Amino acid sequence: MDFQTEITLLTRLLVALVLGVLIGLDREIDGNAAGIRTYAAVCLGAALITIINSHIDVADQTRIVANIVSGIGFLGAGIIFRDSAKNLISGLTTAGTIWATAAVGIAIGFGMYPIGSITALLLILLLVSHHFPLLKKRNKNH
Q1: Total number of domains in the chain
Q2: CA 92/CA 16 separation, integer angstroms
Q3: Which domain holds residue 74?
Q4: CB neighbours of 93 closer than 8 A, spacing ≥ 6?
Q5: Which segments within 28-125 are labelled E, that is strand?
Q6: 140 occurs within a structural domain
Q7: Residue 104 to residues 59, 84, 101, 122: CA-CA distances in angstroms?
Q8: What is the pLDDT of residue 139?
Q9: Residue 44, in any domain of the structure
């Protein structure tokens, strides 16, 4: 592999890392267990697997990407908790955004910088939207 290709691939990894950090920032600030490191690792790992996938000779390269999607879905399922006593379910947003962050990593891994970056921005906006007064859920106890 030539030096220019190596630089291109390293750039993809760095962009995936930065986008993962930015997506995880809101979760970290809110005190969620899955924060900056989790989101950055998911995005970076998905990008790396995608990069490796695009540089190996495999008959069906789509299987590797499909396995990222299902593997992250399995990780997300472990994040969702149900409290039967209080009839509450928690972790759905975290599970969904971890899954979507893996998709950002896949896009960056394939060199799709605009769509990966815009998707990351949309995820960030989605995560911070609960800070906007009009979108906050009203607490019935107050």
Answers
A1: 1
A2: 23
A3: 7-28+39-131
A4: 127
A5: 81-83, 88-90
A6: no
A7: 24, 34, 5, 11
A8: 44
A9: yes
